[in-house]
């Protein structure tokens, strides 16, 4: 039997994959990956695929990265994990300090968790709890339409993703959505008016406004302009609403600056990070906050913020994150990315030649366009055709995007673009 | 300056520790751990501490375990991580198959996540969603008084832990508690009557009854008898309520059987596992379910269970989990534990000689007693005294417990017991 089939059939027997309608795999191959190196994934027949989506936006410095692997192995031979209540360790102390420093000390404390959803839940709880301690009862949250913040119930509640949440409506916490501008919008008056109407009516009940700055990644890569961000956040701050930036997908230089908020003229109260933080190696997330918030929880036991997860601050994950920061320090990643981003975008614009391609856009190392077509099973079809051509692509509805590891080189970029041309020519 | 202080002061400057009132560290040392091996943790002054709580109940085969470390390094040199939607890999396929097999195929599918809270949220969502697909609108959950299931909002909602959740009451989802028997109860009629009253009134609205079988660990190590579990679960099943067992803390032989439910005569609909699953190395959790549940989500896109986390099914964490299962296969862990458990309990009973010691109890490799005293800051005092004597102890309120890595030997056990005697003599 085909070597891939042996593994994939066993997988289908025992594994329920995330974010997947499993019946899709009656038609679309569930591809088993044997190993990976750089931008390449290898299946059990030794066929190579370029990871065009950084394995769900986590892998920035390539698979089997030698430096990260080396630092991780060193940590294995020292301390793999220790409870973080009452105890601490050097990898997490170094990481916390460095995260504050690369944020220009805009934040002074780090609170860790294991995944993005948990980080979002922590930020929501912290904002609510801080307000509660200040005598303010604010049980509402505000978020942008088309937003995505995770899958645990509270994170899902503040996300605007119909199919992911409609079923659970009787379980969700209270949230208000304000309309987000899209890529083409440059007049934000109606959006700001909508926001102001909400704030006028509900601000005294809203703990926090949570925002994915610059790009709503899961929201079909909606890239909106920083002017809206600046104005919306300043307005919310005037109404005494906390600001949470969810940079889980865009943090660590994806949008061209180390963090997306650095392109704005504001600093949020809370910053949620995950995904690329460990270079795509291990689950790790963090909420960064300011000392003025931390101080609210400091005092007698009744003021405690008692959130925890067993593996909070796992030393192995921290070692990977420190290695990632080493790479940022030792290599001129952000400037090299600028050259790479310009090269990719030059070629990406070739897709404007297809009449079905709309809203072609990019921001830093994220490239996208929408396909205006009536093809059934568009996403499955693209995924399948991409695999045939040695690409891992995963369109979001009718949006095709390219979000590669930063280490991709020009030859690999050309391979992706050339083959995406072939795919579009076949299906359009 | 003292080497520990250098690290701990930097830690206090940048890190907000989980489950901690940070002001406690004005008096109690925040101890930095440099390395760990076996049951021993070493601080920056090279002082050793026995990890009496398996680093929050995660570490079962010791720190820097050579076998787990070796298997983890092999995985680093092959595949560290790949998106699990549309893709799969051998470590997770092997792990899923093995988890089903060591559960005697009572469950046929595995759905992965990164921490216990997320696993609980997945189980709640899955039960609710499955019922929804079957045309049943059941927006309530049922759990035991004194229960603990995690910190994300939905997991917290079904937990009965005042100080952790009271603040957030306006954010919580709807839950009903039924009283749990305590260690000393052997007549369960009033408990079962209370449960029946709830079921009679609300069963058509209750999706699932979630239970920590045999021991409510965070609930001050409340060990209740299996007879209650059997009767309560059978009753709930008669009322068409799903059963979720949260074995995050007790799974993987902590209670003497591989999973706690194996001491009962029932099999739950969902089994949540985490903590010891990776041997205390990496964040990983799983919800095990049956094909009849999986099949409900199989079909057109509208039936999809679309939960995901970026690092779901991380290959490195799966490699650790497979190594843990290897150790269970290759060494007679459960039977060796029985001998060790008997030895510990023989010595543990020496604490009955203190008049303040009440409810001395054990279950498998968990040993506990309550201290009836009026000492202020009892838990901080025990923690501090324990550190002085080279022990990591972390009482739950007035409950002292011992939950060591399984690899602890008799000399180390004696050291713990002898020093706990000294501590009690000093403070009582």
Automatic annotation (TrEMBL), chains A, B:
<feature type="site" description="Participates in the substrate recognition with KAPA and in a stacking interaction with the adenine ring of SAM">
    <location>
        <position position="19"/>
    </location>
</feature>
<dbReference type="GO" id="GO:0004015">
    <property type="term" value="F:adenosylmethionine-8-amino-7-oxononanoate transaminase activity"/>
</dbReference>
<comment type="pathway">
    <text>Cofactor biosynthesis; biotin biosynthesis; 7,8-diaminononanoate from 8-amino-7-oxononanoate (SAM route): step 1/1.</text>
</comment>
<keyword id="KW-0663">Pyridoxal phosphate</keyword>
<keyword id="KW-0808">Transferase</keyword>
<dbReference type="InterPro" id="IPR005815">
    <property type="entry name" value="BioA"/>
</dbReference>
<feature type="binding site">
    <location>
        <begin position="309"/>
        <end position="310"/>
    </location>
    <ligand>
        <name>pyridoxal 5'-phosphate</name>
    </ligand>
</feature>
<dbReference type="Pfam" id="PF00202">
    <property type="entry name" value="Aminotran_3"/>
</dbReference>
<keyword id="KW-0963">Cytoplasm</keyword>
<feature type="binding site">
    <location>
        <position position="308"/>
    </location>
    <ligand>
        <name>substrate</name>
    </ligand>
</feature>
<comment type="similarity">
    <text>Belongs to the class-III pyridoxal-phosphate-dependent aminotransferase family. BioA subfamily.</text>
</comment>
<feature type="binding site">
    <location>
        <position position="56"/>
    </location>
    <ligand>
        <name>substrate</name>
    </ligand>
</feature>
<comment type="function">
    <text>Catalyzes the transfer of the alpha-amino group from S-adenosyl-L-methionine (SAM) to 7-keto-8-aminopelargonic acid (KAPA) to form 7,8-diaminopelargonic acid (DAPA). It is the only aminotransferase known to utilize SAM as an amino donor.</text>
</comment>
<dbReference type="InterPro" id="IPR049704">
    <property type="entry name" value="Aminotrans_3_PPA_site"/>
</dbReference>
<feature type="binding site">
    <location>
        <begin position="116"/>
        <end position="117"/>
    </location>
    <ligand>
        <name>pyridoxal 5'-phosphate</name>
    </ligand>
</feature>
<feature type="binding site">
    <location>
        <position position="148"/>
    </location>
    <ligand>
        <name>substrate</name>
    </ligand>
</feature>
<dbReference type="InterPro" id="IPR015424">
    <property type="entry name" value="PyrdxlP-dep_Trfase"/>
</dbReference>
<feature type="binding site">
    <location>
        <position position="275"/>
    </location>
    <ligand>
        <name>substrate</name>
    </ligand>
</feature>
<feature type="binding site">
    <location>
        <position position="394"/>
    </location>
    <ligand>
        <name>substrate</name>
    </ligand>
</feature>
<dbReference type="InterPro" id="IPR005814">
    <property type="entry name" value="Aminotrans_3"/>
</dbReference>
<keyword id="KW-0093">Biotin biosynthesis</keyword>
<feature type="modified residue" description="N6-(pyridoxal phosphate)lysine">
    <location>
        <position position="275"/>
    </location>
</feature>
<keyword id="KW-0949">S-adenosyl-L-methionine</keyword>
<comment type="subunit">
    <text>Homodimer.</text>
</comment>
<dbReference type="InterPro" id="IPR015421">
    <property type="entry name" value="PyrdxlP-dep_Trfase_major"/>
</dbReference>
<keyword id="KW-0032">Aminotransferase</keyword>
<protein>
    <recommendedName>
        <fullName>Adenosylmethionine-8-amino-7-oxononanoate aminotransferase</fullName>
        <ecNumber>2.6.1.62</ecNumber>
    </recommendedName>
</protein>
<feature type="binding site">
    <location>
        <position position="246"/>
    </location>
    <ligand>
        <name>pyridoxal 5'-phosphate</name>
    </ligand>
</feature>
<dbReference type="InterPro" id="IPR015422">
    <property type="entry name" value="PyrdxlP-dep_Trfase_small"/>
</dbReference>
């Amino acid at each position: 039997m085909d070597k891939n089939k042996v593994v994939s059939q066993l997988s289908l027997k025992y594994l329920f994959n995330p974010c997947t309608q499993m019946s899709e795999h009656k038609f679309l191959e569930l591809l088993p990956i044997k190993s990976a190196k750089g931008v390449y994934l290898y299946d059990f027949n030794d066929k190579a695929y370029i990871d065009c989506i950084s394995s769900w936006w986590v892998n920035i410095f390539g698979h089997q990265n030698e430096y990260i692997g080396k630092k991780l192995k060193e940590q294995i031979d020292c301390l793999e994990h220790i409870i973080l209540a009452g105890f601490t360790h050097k990898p997490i102390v170094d990481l916390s300090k460095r995260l504050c420093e690369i944020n220009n000390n805009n934040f002074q404390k780090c609170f860790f968790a294991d995944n993005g959803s948990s980080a979002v839940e922590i930020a929501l709880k912290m904002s609510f709890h801080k307000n509660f301690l200040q005598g303010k009862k604010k049980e509402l949250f505000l978020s942008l339409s088309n937003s995505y913040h995770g899958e645990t119930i509270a994170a899902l509640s503040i996300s605007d993703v119909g199919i992911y949440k409609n079923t659970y409506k009787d379980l969700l916490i209270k949230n208000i959505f304000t309309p987000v501008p899209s890529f083409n919008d440059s007049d934000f008056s109606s959006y700001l008016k909508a926001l102001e109407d909400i704030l006028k009516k509900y601000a005294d009940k809203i703990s926090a406004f949570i925002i994915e700055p610059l790009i709503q990644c899961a929201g079909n890569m909606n890239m909106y302009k920083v002017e809206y961000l600046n104005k919306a956040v300043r307005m919310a701050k005037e109404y005494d609403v906390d600001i949470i930036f969810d940079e889980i997908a865009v943090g660590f230089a994806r949008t061209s600056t180390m963090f997306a908020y650095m392109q704005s003229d504001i600093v949020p109260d809370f910053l949620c990070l995950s995904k690329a933080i460990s270079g795509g190696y291990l689950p790790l997330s963090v909420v960064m906050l300011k000392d003025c918030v931390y101080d609210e929880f400091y005092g007698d036991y009744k003021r405690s913020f008692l959130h925890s997860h067993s593996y909070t601050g796992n030393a192995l994950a921290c070692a990977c994150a420190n290695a990632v920061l080493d790479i940022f320090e030792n290599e001129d990643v952000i400037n090299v990315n600028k050259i790479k981003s310009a090269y990719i975008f030059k070629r990406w614009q070739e897709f404007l030649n297809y009449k079905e391609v709309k809203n072609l856009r990019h921001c830093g190392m994220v490239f996208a366009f929408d396909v205006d077509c009536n093809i059934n099973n568009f996403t499955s079809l693209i995924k399948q055709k991409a695999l045939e051509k040695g690409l891992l692509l995963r369109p979001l509805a009718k949006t095709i995007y390219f979000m590669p590891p930063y280490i991709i080189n020009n030859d690999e970029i050309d391979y992706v673009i050339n083959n995406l041309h072939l795919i579009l020519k076949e299906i359009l």
